[in-house]
Amino acid sequence: SFLNVVIHRVPIMLEREWPAQAQEILTGRPAAPRTGLQSAGETALVQQSQVVGDPNFPRAAAAALEGLHSAFACPIIVGTAVLGIIQFFTRNIRESDPELLETMATVAGHVGQFIERRQAEEKLRRSEQELNDFFENATMGLHWVGPDGTILRANHAELEMLGYSADEYVGRNIAEFHAESQTIRDILKRL
Fold first, then answer.
1. SS3 annotation, 70-116
2. Around Cβ 174, how many Cβ atoms within 10 Å?
3. Which of 9, 113, 166, 179 stands the most exposed, by the fewest C-beta atoms within 10 Å?
4. Where are the alpha helices (DSSP H) in the chain?
5. Pairwise CA distance, residues 140 & 167, whole Å
6. From the CA atom positions of the chain, what is the Rg in Å?
7. Nearest to residue 148, comparing CAs of 188, 186, 181, 118?
8. Residue among 127, 174, 136, 180 at smallest CA distance from 155
9. 109-142 pLDDT, tens per residue?
10. SS3 of 148, please?
11. What pTM does this model have?
């Protein structure tokens, strides 16, 4: 999903023009003044001292209604994908500030890293849940054994098939449950 952060909250714009224009961004139209950020792969920061008169600024009409004159934006990038844009607007006319833009590039980089970590954590959580669901709902007996042969986990089908409770089975060595315990030890050594 696309993240669009507007730091200067102007209620009228957020209720009227901003949502529609944010939707345009989601469907492919660039966010921020078009003179500086044209595509998802571009990492440019944008600062404009006059946004109202700029025909390339997609929110010029809404900015004019609210008396906003200056703006800057920086992309939140993960890899080569732009996940969002942090935008700042002010009623004052301001000239470009390279130090501010560098600071915001750093902030946006940290936000991008945070989002990337959260996405990775969510992907891992879903993957673990899918594996757990598969393991627990399998119709055949399954167990996990540690490198030392200790049974770490057994599903319901395994316990029912063998006639043990989890307390009687999990935590014990797998060799205890096989007639050929030496064969099991040899297999474990090879793993």
1. EEEEEEEEECCEEEEEEEEEECCCCCCCHHHHHHHHHHHHHHHHHHH
2. 20
3. 179
4. 11-15, 17-26, 60-66, 98-137, 156-162, 166-169, 181-190
5. 20
6. 29
7. 188
8. 136
9. 899 899 899 999 999 999 999 999 999 999 999 9
10. coil
11. 0.58
